[in-house]
Design a protein that fits this description.
The complex is a heterodimer of chains A (about 150) and B (about 150).
Chain A: H1 2-20, H2 25-32, H3 41-63, H4 83-99, H5 103-109, H6 115-146
Chain B: H1 12-33, H2 39-47, H3 52-66, H4 68-76, H5 88-104, H6 109-118, H7 122-145
The chains are: A mainly alpha (about 150), B mainly alpha (about 150).
Membrane topology (chain B): Multi-pass membrane protein
Pfam family, one (chain B): Sulf_transp
Keywords (chain B): Cell inner membrane, Cell membrane, Membrane, Transmembrane, Transmembrane helix, Transport
Chain lengths: ~150, ~150
């Protein structure tokens, strides 16, 4: 039951992405092409999603102390705005502008069995591992200095 | 042939319904697993799992996500349109850069853009503004300044 509900949650997300156009790089890149073939559709994706989760989260946290399958809600609490957050986000934007896929758009699109999505996905995974490796190096260096 | 200069159809209703479903999934995941629906975090935790039970729900959620296009096909009779107006090298370079950026930025369009913004998290609002800005500048440079050097199909 737990696994089925988790699967259906993913399915609803994937269906939403498929309907929204976020799985279609042509549409995503046109959203950002204000000076060219601008397609404002993605405003409606973001507007719809944020509206539902804004009210949904509030109703949920008001009514329940814990989630159904876990002992507690795990919500990011950090309020630190640093170079890592801003720099990483800027870098992400550059990559998104080059490829046209973001992770949330590409993961459901894998199921559309288009080879381009899998090419992007493999490169995305390589980038995630590369970042983890660089972070480990940075942490090791910092630890070395501390000693 | 899709090129970077091909217009796409304005789809306010399909996009709005898609957005509502994405938001509903985000609320459901919080209700069930107590987690933020961030594609970056879910994937990163799947790739480098903390333990087997933490891995299992991520694998099942990812399987559900990837089944989305099939559900879409069952409803509409065709797979969702995936038009790629960029070259394969652009997909590879872009994908790698996205992987690095979302790791350092701790999130992407779903985690920061939807879940974080709806919680009014200052970090997520700054992150979302940052990547939207960088994406728009990148698309402008590729399409209107450098021509087809990077993004040509």
């Amino acid at each position: 039951m737990k696994h089925l509900l988790t699967y259906l949650t993913g399915l609803i997300f994937g269906l939403g992405i498929s309907m929204s156009g976020m799985a279609n790089p042509a549409k995503v890149l046109n959203f950002f092409d204000f000076a060219g073939t601008w397609d404002p559709s993605l405003v409606f994706v973001m507007g719809g999603a944020v509206t539902v989760s804004f009210f949904g989260y509030r109703a949920l946290f008001k009514r329940y102390e814990t989630p159904a399958f876990e002992p507690r809600f795990i919500v990011p609490t950090s309020r630190v705005i640093d170079a890592k957050l801003v720099g990483g986000s800027l870098v992400f934007g550059v990559g998104w502008g080059i490829a046209g896929f973001c992770p949330g758009g590409a993961l459901p699109a894998l199921g559309a069995l288009d080879a381009n999505v899998w090419v992007f996905f493999v490169a995305l995974v390589a980038g995630i591992f590369a970042a983890k490796f660089m972070m480990t190096l940075t942490a090791a260096k910092a630890a070395g200095r501390a000693n | 042939m899709i090129t970077e200069f091909s217009p796409t159809e304005f789809t306010p209703w399909a996009s709005l319904i898609g957005g509502l479903l994405i938001g509903a999934a985000a609320v459901l995941l919080m209700a069930l697993q107590g987690r933020i629906f961030g594609a970056t975090g879910i994937l990163a935790g799947f790739l480098t799992p903390a333990n087997s039970s933490d891995w299992a729900w991520r694998a099942i959620l990812l399987a559900g996500m990837a089944s989305g296009p099939l559900a879409f096909a069952a409803l509409t009779g065709h797979m969702p349109v995936v038009e790629v107006p960029v070259s394969t090298p652009a997909l590879i370079i872009g994908g790698f850069i996205v992987g690095i950026g979302v790791s350092y930025g701790s999130g992407c369009t779903s985690g920061h853009g939807v879940c974080g913004m709806s919680r009014l998290s200052p970090r997520s609002i700054v992150a979302t503004l940052s990547f939207m800005f960088a994406t728009a500048v990148t698309v402008y440079l590729i399409r209107h300044v450098f021509g087809q050097v990077v993004g040509g199909a």
